[in-house]
């Protein structure tokens, strides 16, 4: 193939360099900067060649590397001659100059930088172009997608992938205030309009690294950037490559220069736009209350940290906000005559209250905020002698209060006692205790109340769940009543038990339900019965299946529960597993029915345009991930399969082009991914009442499970449609998936009616079962 090759003098620094004949106009110009990395350039060629959107020109800029090797790869890429433009610089002029040369040599409506070491999902261009061309995207100058961080090595001229993990999935908008703190998305995920590049004047060629960040800052002064929350870009890193290696990333190989030039970039940006600097700085100050300190900075630094390093700043910030909300509400619940008049001006905070509202209530109430265990008070006072002096003089209650009111905005370091547990344990996984990770009891956190049902008669009910047991914790979160989270591991101190008892008394609790059971739960039960006696009725609900008895711990806890029931410490014992009481004596004969989350109504829910199946499953045998993935890939009407875990090894057996790794998601991110799916697939080998199914139904998406044998719903049309008996046969499972996907897309109103009817029936039954079990 004879590809177009403009003549580019090595010493010409002008950005506008083009072919003698005008390049053909295309919708998108895809610019690839490369320098003697044939192995990676071949992968980039495959990534671009697989795009479902075809109206693009691929501009390859050989930045002083082996021209013949690069040309050979481009010519062998299989693209039409008029879709490829090859530029070669005799000497390397840097990444930003290469970008400018490639963009200037092409003609298009949109531009995207596809570096030679990154890659795309096949529908990246299709979806990003559709976004910017559609009514939602017309106000934006560009759009980013979420990404997958791919850690890899180069060995013996082969790419060895080591790990994949979600990247930047918390990003929902792109603000200049956030971008000033650091770049938080890679070029591979960013499609932008060419006129904005023209207006900026191109990439800053004076910067050897961080030019993409500088360009993004300039871009945001001219236009907004939208977010497409799908992981369509793959950001590849050779984390262990030596800095001299030609295959090393600029982020890794030039890591020292990134740190050195970060301040230079900020200063140069502000100097260039001195007339706009006040606007930029006021934007930072005006929105700092609404930003989560460290969240964006952590995202920007992710590429420079080891893959195993935890992101803790966002978790700490959420924990601080939740701690304030809980402290304010507890103070209001305990108000005395002395504080009653003052507190009348303050209303209890909602679970989703923001920082401005929480701090305002804290200042008005003048309540002392207890120092949480996740804040190192001594270290903060040692780091800040002025604060220590104010605390000693009685001017401040604590260093923690200073940090909340002032330190956050002054840039003072927040010393934590442990790293946040970012990748939370799923279902009944029980992580080993760690001295660096100490979980403490906490009442009524926003996360445990936000989607809870509010039903009269449950105001004096307290549910006790465990921080670490995700599935049971979520089932508890949606129940009506108060919530207490305790640690499953470690020690529950006597002071903790005493504080819990005081809180129970202050809230007027008369019924306690232990949702799941542990040694700490057992010790708390005995402590509460010792203090309150018959005045506090205690119950327990188990969420275990007998398949989990392979873990000896589960049988020990079952035996302990039966002993406490016979002793009279427990007034009732029930299960969410059908017929559990038919096997074990003294269980309440009824079935406890789980609630789905109580989410705001979103009106008529339409199925997504793309027919996709989402399988948020662990890789263990019980979750049956491989059969689920194979069944979904085999289904003829499924266009995309999304997973929380990558099915390692399956790529050698079947084509995984339709597979998308979205990673573990929680909260709003999980709900939104479910809502974007045609079907949530949960054909697992052992379940009680999977909360993921109920969360999916709450956002209007059907979820397929194996037989759950809940007789109360035997006649329910939705449950019949969403149940498959084919848990070890991917071919037959595929037929059931096709049937449910077709039902979702062929008659959306009928599907919505079935879901609405089922949830109304379920919630009424769940409320009645809890009331009967507790004898309310």
Automatic annotation (TrEMBL):
Coiled coil: none annotated. InterPro entries: Glyco_trans_2-like, Glycosyltransf_2, Nucleotide-diphossugar_trans. It holds the Pfam family Glycos_transf_2. Residues 30-162 form the Glycosyltransferase 2-like domain. PANTHER family: GLYCOSYLTRANSFERASE, GLYCOSYLTRANSFERASE 2-LIKE DOMAIN-CONTAINING PROTEIN. This is Glycosyltransferase 2-like domain-containing protein. It comes from Chelatococcus caeni. The lineage of its organism: Bacteria, Pseudomonadati, Pseudomonadota, Alphaproteobacteria, Hyphomicrobiales.
């Amino acid at each position: 193939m004879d590809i177009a090759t403009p003549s580019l003098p090595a010493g010409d620094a002008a950005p506008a360099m083009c072919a003698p004949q005008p390049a053909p106009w295309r919708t998108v110009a895809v610019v690839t900067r490369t320098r003697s990395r044939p192995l990676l350039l071949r992968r980039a060629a495959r990534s671009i060649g697989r795009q479902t959107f075809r109206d693009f020109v691929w501009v390859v800029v050989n930045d002083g590397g082996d021209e013949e090797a690069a040309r050979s790869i481009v010519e062998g890429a299989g693209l039409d001659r008029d879709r490829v433009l090859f530029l070669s610089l005799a000497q390397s002029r840097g990444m930003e100059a290469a970008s400018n040369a490639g963009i200037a040599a092409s003609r298009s409506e949109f531009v995207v930088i596809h570096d030679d070491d990154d890659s795309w999902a096949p529908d990246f261009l299709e979806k990003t172009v559709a976004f910017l061309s559609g009514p939602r995207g017309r106000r934006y100058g560009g759009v980013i997608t979420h990404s997958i961080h791919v850690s890899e090595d180069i060995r013996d001229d082969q790419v060895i992938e080591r790990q994949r993990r979600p990247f930047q999935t918390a990003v929902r908008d792109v603000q200049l205030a956030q971008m000033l703190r650091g770049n938080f998305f890679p070029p591979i995920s960013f499609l932008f309009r060419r006129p904005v590049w023209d207006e900026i004047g191109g990439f800053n060629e004076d910067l050897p690294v961080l030019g993409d960040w500088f360009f993004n800052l300039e871009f945001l002064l001219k236009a907004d950037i939208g977010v497409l929350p799908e992981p369509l870009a793959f950001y590849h890193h050779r984390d262990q490559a030596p800095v001299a290696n030609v295959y090393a990333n600029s982020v890794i190989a030039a890591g020292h220069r990134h740190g050195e030039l970060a301040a230079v970039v900020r200063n140069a940006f502000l100097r260039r736009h001195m007339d706009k600097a006040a606007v930029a700085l006021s934007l930072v100050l005006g929105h700092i209350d609404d930003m989560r300190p460290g969240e964006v900075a952590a995202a920007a630094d992710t590429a420079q940290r080891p893959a195993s390093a935890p992101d803790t700043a966002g978790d700490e910030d959420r924990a601080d906000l939740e701690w304030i909300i809980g402290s304010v509400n507890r103070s209001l619940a305990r108000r005395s005559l002395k504080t009653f008049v003052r507190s009348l001006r303050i209303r209890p905070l909602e679970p989703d209250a923001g920082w401005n509202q929480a701090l305002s209530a804290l200042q008005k109430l003048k309540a002392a905020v207890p120092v949480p265990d996740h804040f190192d008070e001594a270290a903060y006072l040692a780091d800040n002698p002025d604060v220590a002096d104010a605390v000693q003089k009685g001017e401040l209650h604590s260093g923690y209060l200073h940090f909340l009111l002032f330190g956050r905005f002054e840039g003072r370091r927040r010393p934590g006692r442990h790293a946040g547990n970012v990748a939370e344990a799923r279902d009944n996984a029980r992580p080993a205790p760690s001295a660096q990770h100490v979980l403490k009891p906490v009442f009524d956190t926003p996360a445990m109340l936000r989607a809870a049902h509010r039903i009269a008669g449950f105001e004096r009910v307290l549910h006790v769940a465990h921080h670490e047991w995700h599935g049971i914790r979520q089932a508890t979160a949606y129940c009506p009543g108060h919530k207490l989270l305790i640690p499953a591991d470690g020690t529950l101190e006597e002071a903790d038990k005493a504080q819990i008892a005081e809180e129970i008394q202050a809230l007027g609790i008369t019924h306690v339900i232990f949702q799941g059971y542990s040694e700490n739960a057992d010790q708390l039960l005995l402590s509460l019965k010792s203090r309150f006696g018959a005045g506090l009725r205690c119950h327990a609900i188990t969420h275990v299946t007998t398949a989990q008895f392979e873990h000896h711990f589960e049988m020990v806890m079952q035996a302990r529960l039966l002993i406490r029931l016979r002793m009279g410490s427990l007034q009732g014992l029930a299960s969410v597993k059908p017929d559990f009481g038919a096997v074990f004596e003294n269980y309440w004969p009824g079935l406890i029915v789980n609630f789905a989350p109580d989410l705001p109504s979103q009106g008529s829910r339409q199925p997504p345009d793309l027919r996709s199946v989402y399988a948020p499953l662990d890789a263990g045998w019980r979750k049956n991930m491989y059969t689920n993935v194979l069944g979904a890939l085999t289904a003829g009407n499924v266009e995309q399969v999304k997973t929380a875990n990558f099915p390692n090894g399956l790529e050698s057996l079947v084509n995984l082009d339709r597979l998308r790794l979205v990673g573990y998601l929680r909260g709003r991110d999980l709900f939104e991914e479910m809502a974007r799916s045609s079907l949530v697939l949960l054909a697992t080998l052992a379940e009680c009442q999977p909360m993921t199914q109920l969360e999916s139904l709450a956002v209007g998406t059907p979820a397929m499970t194996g037989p759950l044998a809940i007789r109360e719903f035997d006649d329910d049309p939705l449950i019949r449609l969403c149940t498959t008996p084919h848990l070890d046969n991917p071919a037959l499972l595929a037929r059931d998936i096709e049937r449910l996907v077709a039902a979702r897309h062929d008659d959306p109103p009928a599907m919505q009616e079935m879901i609405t009817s089922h949830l109304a029936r379920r919630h009424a039954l769940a409320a009645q079962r809890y009331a009967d079990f507790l004898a309310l």
